[in-house]
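new request in #modeling-help
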Amino acid sequence: MEKFIKHSGTAVPLRRSNVDTDQIIPAVYLKRITKSGFEDGLFAAWRNDPAFELNQPQYKSATILVAGPDFGTGSSREHAVWALQNYGFKVVLSSRFADIFRGNSQKAGLLTVILPQDEIEKIWLEIESKPETTITVDLDSKTVSYAGTTIAFAIDDYTRWRLMEGLDDIGLTFTKIDQVSNFEEKRASFKPKTLPIR
Amino acid sequence: MGKTLAEKIWAEHVVSSTAGEPDLLYIDLHLIHEVTSPQAFDGLRLADRKVRRPDLTIATEDHNVPTLNIDKPIADPVSKLQVDTLRKNCAEFGVRIHSLGDVEQGIVHVVGPQLGITQPGMTIVCGDSHTSTHGAFGALAFGIGTSEVEHVLATQTLPLIRPKTMAINVDGNLKPGVTSKDIILAVIAKIGTGGGQGYVLEYRGSAIRALSMEARMTICNMSIEAGARAGLIAPDQTTFDYVKGKPHAPSGADWDLALAYWRTLVTDNDATFDKEIYLNADDLAPFVTWGTNPGQGLPLSESVPNPADFTNPEDRGAAERALEYMDLKPGTPLKSIKVDTVFLGSCTNGRIEDLRSAAEVIKGKKIASSLRLLVVPGSARVRLQAESEGLDKVFLDAGAEWRSAGCSMCLGMNPDQLKPGERAASTSNRNFEGRQGKGGRTHLVSPLVAAATALKGTLSSPADL
């Protein structure tokens, strides 16, 4: 995973709540067997509308998505995270993320930052009136800054460290694999197995 | 102080716990399907890793597969490639798979319970958010993303932060015609699509105890629609009777050991939940969604709400957008809404009891000429069972289509899709924009409401017939 320490870029407002993962990437786009090439499916239904924020020229090069509450609800598809990354997003800001989406984003290296809804509203106003505004998201200092404003955000230390070091979660677990083996030796005999087939 | 059921199962599965880090949790069962696994297997190959426990892993083909002509090659080449990739990966890594045409094939959350590999006290994961279904057995079961699928394949564990616990207490008696689907739709309407974020839900109370296993699965299945990764119901005699005798259920001395352990899987009397919610089953009525998220639901007897009546600006905006998408006007009685398609199936309501209850309403009658009724059993076994009971004839004689098993129109990944502007009453779990086909409009309902709607042509309950 690529390290994430700090990112500066312009941002696009998405003034909608409950943007579910079927909206982020519809099921028909989930048939690829790679982690790339999902950018065309990102917000596929809405992209047909010229008024949709992502289609507006002033937001074309945005790398930060400023979303409404409950972003990423629904399906567990990590393809939603890949689609956002494939399109060029590095950060999503929202007041609430769905659990699975947030977990997936933290595994794949897309930074999801929780800010209070009133701060999100202020950022929306700023980037709607001045789309060229640069927003800096700093994981080291745990802050979001733009136009003279700095907002602190919370993230657990473990996830922050893993993102900043770009560490592979599976590799970290392998450092504890002896404990996994010990656990397996003590598992109850009645626990089901899928093999042999009965 | 006592522990909640979720806390007990969690504690039993902690491999390693370090302050300031997530707990490393052991996973008892990993279910796999074609959509969320190919990139995970690729990751294993790239890192030269194996599947640690093929004997705790099982795959089935469900999301992508056609429900017609299943003896022919899959027509869509992209779908075919994804299914073929799963078959190749399972062969390469030694994972058991039930492919299209196999009698054990079906929706992954229908297959697990019917094989008896879903049991109380387990941790169960799958790259699918409706894994919460298995919580009906008193298992801690939740959906994961593809990175986590790879993690479980490689290590049989997951690093996880312990969730908070919420009790959903449902006491009283359901009225005739009211089902567990109506309970969960009412719960989601009450707490909202984000209400369960960060929590494991435990459904409790006399109305839950009175439900069959299949009805309990419907409730736990939709926990994710309230934002909760997992939903649980403590196992009881209903659970034990259901598991006993299933192919992978414990037997002999193991059964006694298992049963003794399962009986400990209850929330202690002195345990406290982080949050508690109360519903009275006597007050519940058949429910239907009017909007584009599962929290936008109302009793069928009511009318489409007016967005102006929502005080919260986010809810108001969401309602405005939903009504525009759904092409509905405020004040329209829900029962006057005409539908074009009725979908009976999915991991929410594609089990044998669902088909039986719908067939009972439909038996000897004809569906409205203005619509199509698609009946898609949740698994090949469910289909066979239904056929042995003559349910296929009931549906076919009424003018319905009787299909083979899969996720089908729940998410429209296979050819079973709504056309733009088409309106459906669906026993599935999500009414998101375009979920069942681009431009399609979905009203979530119970199997009983689906059946009555199919006969009448407008959203209806059996009492309206």
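bot summary: The mean pLDDT of chain A is 96.
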